[in-house]
Amino acid sequence: MDALRAATASSLPLDELAPDAYARGHAAFEALSNQRHLIALWLVDRLTSSRTAPLSVLSVGCGDGALDAAVAKRLLASDSNGRALRYVGIEPFEVSARHFHEHMGRINSGRLSFDTIVAPFSKSSLDETFDVVTFVHSMYYVPDVAEAAHAACALLRPGGEVIVLSAPRGALNLLAGLLAPAIEGHRQWFSDDVHDALTFSGLDLAIPAPIEAVVDLTDASDDVLDFTVQARLTPDYRVLVRRYLADVSLVAGRSVVAHPVDAYAVRRARAPMSAPT
To answer: Which end is more exposed in the chain, N or C (fewer Cβ atoms within 10 Å of the end residue's Cβ)?
Structure first.
């Protein structure tokens, strides 16, 4: 990490990832981690534990839909009462949005209805409400966390819930925090940023236990490394990043790194707190 910090002090910022490179690296990265599977199980458990009516879900930053399709399949299979499931995905990258639509379309159930909106959440127009709004690894990219959370709460049906899953600034994301270029004028928001914004924005916040996962980056491709740090790495940086991953590995001789995600749940508005000075 010291070598990486020294490199950033004496070089220009790295280039951001193009949407297609981001999507390609993301898919390959997820294949090396058990986190997506654990998130799917977690979401299904949370959604089914309080489900009393036909469920509607809005997935903000749905990506290619692989996670949402897995959740939808499990929700449909677990419901012995044959209730309907409504799923809407919002995704600014058109190619990923198309993959979301394809993934959902492969679910063979007459009880599922779904739509895809190609737009950033802040610029999307929705004329329906939802039981659940999810931000699964997508709150990093919004211009303002509190504003996005309030907008999501405005789309909730009575008793509904906004769920935010966001990565902590741990060993893995120290890389993105150091190397990722700014996103539309702001850095990526990690879970501590989400926690602070939600706590002091007048929202009723619950904090379930984090989801613990690992990712094995021992033989990661260049595309995966680029996604890991959220930037287009140069050859010199790739050497330093691989060395750092080996240093923080949980398994000797490999690059197996902790890959947890923190969970936040918002149910309703309350009186705002005073922000710390």
So the answer is: C
Q: Write down the pTM of the prediction.
A: 0.91
Domain chopping of the chain, boundaries: 2-269
Q: Compute the distance between CA of residue 132 and CA of residue 59 in angstroms, rounded to an integer.
A: 8
What count of other Cβ atoms lies within 10 Å of the Cβ of residue 87?
Answer: 25
Residues in the chain: 277
Q: Which residue bears the tokens 């058990």? A: 34
- How far apart, in whole angstroms, are the C-alpha atoms of residue 157 and residue 154? 8
Ranges of residues in the chain whose predicted pLDDT is under 50? 270-277
**Distant-in-sequence, close-in-space partners of 61: CB < 8 Å, separation ≥ 6:** 90, 91, 92, 121, 135, 136, 137, 138, 139, 141
Beta-sheet pairing, 214-216 with 256-258? antiparallel
Q: Which fold has domain 2-269?
A: Rossmann fold (3.40.50)
Using only C-alpha atoms, what is the Rg of the chain?
Answer: 19
Where are any strands of DSSP class E within the chain? Answer: 55-60, 85-90, 112-117, 130-136, 156-166, 203-206, 214-216, 256-258, 262-269
- The tens digit of pLDDT for each residue in 124-158 reads 889 899 999 999 999 998 999 999 999 999 999 99
